[in-house]
Structures
1.
Amino acid sequence: MRPASLCEVVERARADGDWDHHLQNFLDAFYALDGDITAQGAMIAEDPGFLGDARPDAFLGGVGEHLARRWRLPFIPAWVRHEARYLDTAMFVPDERNLRTYLLCVSPVSFRPRLIFTGPDPLQRARFPYHRGVVRMPLTFPQGLAAAALFEPER
């Protein structure tokens, strides 16, 4: 059975360590409820807690905010703004050096402040409701960030 909330994603990930697998199953359940904003809002409303690993904790904050914004839910949960939901070092998904400039430009606003740089719609799945159309993202560099600070020196 798929997780019915981000809280369940974290609970299951604490048990087996596979947060990404549980998140993907959660997204399938979330998208299956497309159009039911009350049910979708309830799926992200409660603070899921932390896994104790900065990257997944920050990514889950981005997920909660992105889903609320992307699906025009009536609120963005307060828990997504917790300081532990933000990284100190940039994370690129995928972590391919030659894609970094592109990812800097197209990352959704819910992920950029967390220093998570990914494709324009990072939560797409086979069950994604494509009838909603594509996301139109501005091709601007995240304000206040220096590009040089995001890249590690080559070794």
Note: The CA atoms of residues 37 and 71 lie 8 Å apart.
2.
Amino acid sequence: MNERKASEWVVKGAPTPGRRPVAVHRRGCRPASNCIQPVEAGEARRLLIMDAGLACQICRPDTALQLL
């Protein structure tokens, strides 16, 4: 698989203890404007595998990470 730089993926609603992520985005996606945390491709992939509903429907990180 083609691994991308860590800065290419962001999680909205940063995955901190006791806080559930809201969405996974590609960096630069307009809806990911606030409360984001950069993550590595492997972490973005793990989050999307656990909950496909986290994938932004605009920037489609699931497609970019070849999960479809």
Note: Strands lie at 9-12, 23-26, 36-39.
3.
Amino acid sequence: MRTLQVLAARLDRVEAELALHRLAHDYCVGADHRDPVRWEAIWTADAVWETSSDQIFTGIEAIRAAGVEQQWQAFPIMQHATANHTVETPSS
């Protein structure tokens, strides 16, 4: 039975890491292709984006207005790249 629990925990970790990679991918592709539907799909309705201690945006509308919409106005072409995403699990 222990082997099954270990395998389930390992599978959970792999799925979490893949989901993290997909999230970053969708953020980048949504922003770079100016696809608001894809870009917004990565955020929860109550998301909070803190860019600094005095710049905190709550909710998709505020995040979009402060983030990607300003980028789309400022840059005619964008190309995001992300790397080094990891998932760490607490020690048991």
Note: The radius of gyration is 17 Å.
4.
Amino acid sequence: MRLDSRRWRKRAGRSDRWLLDGCLGPTVDLGCGPGRLVAALIERGVPALGVDSSPVAVRLCAARGAVALRRDLFSRIPGEGRWHHALLADGNIGIGGDPVGLLHRVRRLLHPRGSVLVELGAEPGLWRGPARLVGRHGPVGGWFPWASVGPDAVAGVASAAGLRLAEVRRARPGRRTVAELRVVG
């Protein structure tokens, strides 16, 4: 699986528009990386907070003028139960290798009428297994648990976590696919 890490370091672009346009109230970006989406939301006047376990990512986010906390997503996050939107962009539904468990956690962060905006994998189905980052000169760091959820699997994963699939948007073939999940009830 290839992830375009160059996009993470750039400013938010056209391919991020649907994710950003879906955030009309306070938004938490989970696994925010260098903070391109958090910074873009703040520029739009949307209250936003980034959360990432990497100290480098949090520093890069702050350098963009955006706020990010260095935290594990499963630890306490300010505003639990009050966020209008949560972002899981750039394949971050794979964090921890258990998409259902991750979405259960995200659901607890959301306001009762909140939504999760998720970037889906390009391949169909649900894949779980070990992953590692690979740079130009080979592997970077150790193995970690990861998952990928394809467009055909997202409804079942969402339902198992107490969410419902509201919409799927596919960009041109070979491009990003994103989904909006809503709290059930």
Note: The radius of gyration is 15 Å.
